[in-house]
Each structure stands twice: as structure tokens, then as C-alpha cells.
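so ive been stuck on this for like two days lol. basically i have the seq below and the ligand is glutathione, smiles is in there too. i just want the complex predicted, nothing fancy, no docking runs or whatever. if the output looks off dont worry ill sanity check it later, just need somthing to start from for the group meeting slides
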Amino acid sequence: MELKVYADRMSQPSRAVIIFCKVNGINFEEIKVDLSKRQHLSAEFKEINPMRQVPTIVDGRFKLFESHAILIYLASAFPGVADHWYPADVTRRAKIHSVLDWHHSNLRRGAATFILHTVLGAALGLPMKPQVAAEAEKILSSSLSKIESIWLKGNGRFLVGGLQPSIADLSLVCEIMQLELLDEKDRSRVLGPHKKVQQWIEDTRNATKPHFDEAHKFLYKAKTKFQVQRTLQANSEREESSIRKALPSKM
Ligand SMILES: N[C@@H](CCC(=O)N[C@@H](CS)C(=O)NCC(=O)O)C(=O)O
């Protein structure tokens, strides 16, 4: 039976799994679980993933959630996946696990919380807390610095000195791509100081093209939508303030 990938392309770990399958010629059926429509909370999806999160895969009778576990499973169970994605060498493999474990409580914690409390929260009807956003930005910036000084240290273009990308590059870069949704001022403030990270994103995109941009199309569209909304809101605030200023002078 064909592999099924339950995903929403607004979700960074979902995109990592989709890109991985495409780059490695793994046949799969993508089943959209629209988070904005709360489809992940349906009884039907709960049967597939009791955690009610994407990505999730079903391979025959085997069900699996957690993107890193999924990437490891796909790299191990499907033939033809190039060694660099998940090296057979145990020390290289262990280093990749080290990055993946670190990711959840550092880069992902910072990036996902920051995006939620600056852009996505409003779209999802959730309260946005500036104090939480400020704390998350600190975690995010510190994580980006650590990626540069620890994981991208050395001559390799990819994490832990790799000359070609591994599943860790894909996971972390897809997370950072979420910053595309930010206001340009916020995005430059966070990402601007990290030139090595910027180059690494570009290298990962090039190593996985055309699938990288194809999988991110939905995110790029959302970015444009948020930009338009911000411009409209700024214009209406400007108009309101000029009306307010004009009123007393006419009274
Ligand atoms: N650690 C999980 C995180 C999965 C996750 O947080 N997925 C989000 C989308 S990016 C989700 O399904 N959110 C819905 C929810 O938690 O209610 C992984 O790497 O797969």
C-alpha cells in the first residue's frame, strides 16, 4: 500500500517530511489536514494520531507521528535514500540525533512561539502576548547564534560539517522558513545578523530544488496575504489618526 502523509503545508515539520519524500523519490499520497479548519481535532484523525498533530504517516498498517521519527523511519525503510540524509556511520548518525533533540527545545520553541505571538495568533483567533513574543525572540536569536557557532562550525556547508544535507538540515531550515511570515522589519532584525544561517538556508534550498520552493508555495502565499493585511491596517490607522487630528480644528 502506498505511503500516506497527513500534512498541512503551513506546518514546518510537515514540509520537511514532504520535501524529504519528493527529493528521495518516495511515492506517497499527501492528505491535507487543514489546521485552520481544525481538521486535526476530528475523531477520524484522532484514530490516526491520538496526539492530533501533523505530520503523521501511515505505511500499510504502521502509523507514526513526530517528524524526526518519521524522517528516520523513511530514510531507513525506503530503498534508494542517499546515505547523507541519515548516515550509516554511527557517530555521524548520533550527531544528527543530537541536533534533532536540541531543535525541539531551542530553535523550534523560540521560532514557533515567536511566530504565534507576532503573526499567526491573530489569524487563528488566539490572543497575542507581546511579553511572550519578546521572550521567544531571545530564545530564537540565541538558537540561531548557536547554530552558527556550534552546528555550522567548520568547513562543511551543512550541519555537523556535512558536505550534503541530512534530515537535520531539512528539519531546522523548514522551521526557520516560518520567519518568512514576519513583518520585514522583524524578520531582518532576527535573521539579519546571521549570515551563515542565511547561506545555509540557500544551500539547503539549492540541494533540494525544485521541491523546496514547491513545498513552501503555500507559505509564500500566506506571507503575501499577511503583508497586504498589514498595509491595509496601517493605512486605515493613518486615516483614522488624520481624521481625529482634523476634527477638533473644525469644531
Ligand atoms: N514535535 C512534533 C510537532 C508537531 C506539531 O507541533 N505540529 C503542529 C503543526 S506545526 C500541529 O499539528 N499543531 C496542532 C496542534 O498542536 O493542535 C513534530 O515534530 O512532528
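Residues 211-250 form the longest helix (40 residues). The chain is about 60% helix and 5% strand.
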